[in-house]
Design brief:
alpha+beta, Jelly Rolls, 6 strands, 24% helix
Length: 187
Amino acid sequence: MEEKKNFWQQEEDLEGFGQAFVVSEERKLNWVDIETLEAYSFELKTLAIKILHLMAKALGMDATDMELFEEGSQSMRMNYYPPCPQPELVIGLNPHTDPIVTNGIYRSIEHRATVNSEKERVSIATFYNPKLDGDMGPAPSLVTPERPALFKRIGVADYFEGLFTRELHGKPNLEAMRIQNEDEKSI
């Protein structure tokens, strides 16, 4: 309790431990504590930017290629998967790949979440996205005559619209951005 008091909500503040929207002492209160993710989110953002810059350095990218992320947005998704009596009939989270700026040098691995018939599962995914008014695609410094662009450039907002409107069993959004070479077109 002493540790919780260090993070207690201040008056008219929604962050921290405590009760939100207490307007009267006579009112019944919810039996719940609310806690902040602000400090955790800040540290994750710092880590994400550091990883992006280290990745760029390892690939020999121009530092300006990562400016797309400097004013990006951060979000979290918390998923709860209860035990499922027939896990073979459902998808916890459909298989997907994440967009990357490495022009295929670092491969985006397909991943998913599965459910279990006996155990519940909780996952917390954190996303650090490029700014919505930018364009995404292979980093210009990684595109050369010897290594042409493997993916199209597309507006970030358009990319996310495609990502969130695609069918569950459809082609992964990243693959929809792939540029086909002449050999692939004839297949």
